[in-house]
Amino acid sequence: MTDLATARSDRAGGTAAAVAEAADARLTAALRERGQRVTSQRLVIHRLLRELDRHVTADEVLRRAGERLPNVSLPTVYATLDLLTDLGLARRVSVGGPVLYDPRPDDHAHVRCRACGRIDDLDLTIDETAVIKAARAAGYAPEGAELVVEGLCPSCS
Ligand SMILES: [Zn+2]
Ligand SMILES: [Zn+2]
Residue 137's CB: how many other CB atoms inside 10 A? Predict the structure, then answer.
């Protein structure tokens, strides 16, 4: 509840510094809870994801992180984004291209423009039980399912 309220006030026009501070506080608390180290790399990458506030690739995060973390490598960026995902602060999204990292960890679906590649959130919760069950029946060990709607966005249609 508190987290949602914080996220909302950030979007409603908190200064960049306030957003960064709130992001740092959340990550620090989540890392300490798991007994993990708080490093500047982790703080910067998490801040960046919050600042960009959209679905991004690890490559894009690496490009943006370059100025603040001159020696950071792509594998480190991936590892950090995966850690944020494990901590419940981000989400991995597969929409056919490279894996995207989503600053919104809550349940939602995605729509993707097949012409320009734009991706938007769809605010709904989908019961994945049936597809997971079908995958298990096919002999797979399913880890999750995701709905991605494809079509043309308003600018391309
Ligand atoms: Zn489009
Ligand atoms: Zn999303």
Answer: 8
* Residue-wise pLDDT tens digits, 105-144: 998 999 999 999 899 999 988 888 999 999 999 999 998 8
Tell me whether residue 112 is exposed, middle or buried, using C-beta atoms within 10 angstroms of its C-beta: 0 to 12, 13 to 18, 19 or more: buried
Q: Which of 74-78, 93-97, 132-136, 150-154 has the lowest mean pLDDT?
A: 93-97
Going from the Cα of 54 to the center of ligand 2, the distance in angstroms, rounded, reads 7
* Residue ranges of the chain assigned to CATH 1.10.10.10: 2-102
Go through the chain and tell me how many residues it has.
157
CATH 3.30.1490.190 location in the chain: 109-151
Nearest ligand to residue 120 Cα: 2
- 151 C-alpha vs ligand 1 centroid, how far in Å? 8
Residue 15: pLDDT band (50, 70, 90) is: confident
* Distance of CA 102 from the midpoint of ligand 2 (Å): 5
CATH of domain 2-102: 1.10.10.10
For domain 109-151, is the CATH number 3.30.1490.190? yes
Distance 60 CA to ligand 1 centre (A): 20
